Sequence to fold (466 residues):
Amino acid sequence: MAGKTLYLGPRLKKLRRDLGLTQANMASDLDISASYIALMERNQRPVTAEMLLKLATTYRIDVADLADANADETSARLQSALRDPLFADIDIAPLDVEDIATSYPGMAEALLRLHTAFGEEQLALAARREQSGTGNGESAADAVAEARAFLAARRNCFPSLDDSAAEQARRLDSFEAMRAHIAEAHGLDVQVADDGLMRGGTRWHDYHRRRIYVAERLPASGRRFQAALQLAILEQGDAIAAIAQQGRFASEDGRALVHRALQSYWAAALLMPYHAFRKGAEALRYDIEALAARFDVSFEQAAHRLTTLQRPGEEGVPFFFLRVDRAGNVSKRLDGAGFPLARHGGACPLWNIHEVFAKPFQVDAQMIEMPDGERYVSIARTVRAGGGGFGERRVLRSVALACSALHAGRLVYGDVLADVEPVPIGVSCRLCHRPRCIARSAPPMGRELVPARFRESGVPFDFSVN
Fold:
């Protein structure tokens, strides 16, 4: 202990009170002045090694009792909280943080609780802003949020549907096999139809003629998926209803969206059976294009399926999935990982989910870092919907599949990111306190802007104190 200055004020005060002593009583016991006791309790004087020994022998306590067993943990939590860009313009030395954790544990805990509450309110605000941003479609936004919450709470993994689909996949491994099964089991004739009949649709069940039409303009992977989806509707209704019954929905729209999501889940599981797909993913190191080629599905379908590999005991890498259009509107979120970015992210222009529009259909890998210091590997690429003929309207969207950087070594994309500095991104500009961001579209909440009277900072909104 020699050579180390210890300030133990709060704990010394607690010891004195636990013993039922006044400062004068303790001063008399230790043969020092009451004013010196007061100074030590206010951390204006250190507790020397000699004083520690006096305390131990006088009150028959272990010196270790005066040490805070949680000080190291508290210090680490404080260090993590203070890395938030909210505090970027405040110079706090690591030793000061240790002193706060050791000497003022109550204040440290108060700061940590405030920071946690601040983070929770940020996420809650992001959810409210996301819903209110739909204009007069508030009820639709609520239904979407309900469905997303249902899937996220179950990590987008439904083993009973995987097992059912895998059993069927052995014999329904092609469009023609599914077509024959639907005809035999349900008396429905599956036909491929041109757009004159489909009028822009992808699948149509003509109930009166007992026919299922699938759009000719769809690629082979799209036709297989539509046939599988029809099978889910025809044969998996009870199983899907039983799973949906586990949820509590405030709207029928929310329940309907969950039914649709589970039907699509079963269809994807038929095309990409769980065990085979997870084994293939590990063997190919989660190369999405290679996986899509192996299972004869689209890039988006393979990426979508990767979010579902969270079966207990047989987990794959936990991913979340996001799909946006050029305007930044999020049309799909799937979270098999439980990440805040999957629930509320998508607005930061520095994320490669937006940058890949400049290089259509090329896969881009990026290491990103959130304001709390968490890092993720993001794999992004554009995908196309619509089209299929001259003059047909097409929509170009971007999809991103992301996972914690802790799994980078399991991904083929991690090899190119090993020595790359992460790109700092945020949930949204209003909630991101990173200073001097050239891409910022709005100042963060709760920060005062620095007037540009004497110096132009070169960033849209300068709020840091230099």
Summary: The chain has 20 helices and nine strands. The radius of gyration is 30 Å.
